[in-house]
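Translate structure to sequence.
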């Protein structure tokens, strides 16, 4: 019942968004041995009216389309036969390939997957979704800009992959009623966010983030049946918001 959200695997980048190769390899072994791994498309077909996917399933996703996926994660996914979906910022395929939306890049910056790498991954069974055109906060831009971000990214990826791209991942997991309506209107069938921005239905499906320093133990906890329910509860959000306010004083 869990959709995992990674960003990249990169032993040299000291960031919450970058899982070490050692941890990722161990997580892949644990997932292969103990869970039913399914493509994201299979998980999404079981989504209920509350945005929850079917019991016993785990799907692996990556946001941002960073090259660490190709350089460090791909071999472990392939070896363990773990299906994965990568959400690509499509503007990097037509212009600057740097991930300039990342807050704490390593010296020299971060690069994103090339068209050739995406096609190689796709040929091996990795699927792809949209992460918009330029990775903006969709809730902070006007309606026309939002439509452009979603429509153009979808078109670029479909032209490259020669297949429909129906799933969107909101940048930073941020969405609201207006953004969800635009996602549906621009041709997506599902959209995913994070556990902190969950909402009911196909366009607010929560995922569980996996971050640097979290080994198999953390993965096991985050895959527990109670975890997502707690993280998406109003009480949890209220407590976390109060803690943030206290820290800012």
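Result:
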């Amino acid at each position: 019942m869990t959709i995992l959200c990674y960003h990249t695997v990169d032993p040299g980048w000291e960031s919450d968004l970058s899982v070490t190769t050692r941890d990722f390899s161990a997580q892949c072994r644990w997932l292969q041995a103990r869970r039913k791994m399914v493509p994201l498309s299979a998980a999404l077909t079981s989504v209920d009216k509350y945005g929850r996917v079917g019991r016993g399933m785990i799907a692996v996703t990556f946001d941002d389309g960073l090259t660490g996926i190709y350089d460090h994660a791909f071999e472990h996914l392939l070896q363990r036969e773990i299906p994965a979906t990568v959400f690509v910022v499509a503007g990097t395929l037509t212009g600057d390939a740097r991930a300039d939306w990342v807050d704490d890049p390593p010296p020299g910056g971060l690069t994103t997957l090339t068209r050739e790498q995406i096609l190689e991954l796709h040929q091996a069974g990795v699927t792809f979704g949209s992460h918009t055109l330029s990775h903006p906060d969709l809730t902070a831009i006007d309606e026309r800009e939002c439509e452009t971000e979603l429509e153009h990214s979808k078109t670029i990826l479909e032209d490259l992959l020669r297949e429909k791209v129906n799933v969107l991942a909101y940048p930073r997991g941020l969405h609201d009623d207006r953004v969800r309506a635009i996602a549906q209107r621009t041709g997506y069938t599902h959209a995913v966010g994070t556990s902190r921005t969950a909402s009911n239905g196909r366009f607010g499906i929560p995922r569980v983030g996996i971050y640097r320093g979290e080994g198999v133990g953390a993965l096991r906890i985050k895959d527990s049946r109670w975890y997502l329910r707690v993280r998406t509860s109003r009480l949890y959000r209220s407590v976390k918001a109060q803690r943030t306010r206290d820290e800012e004083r």
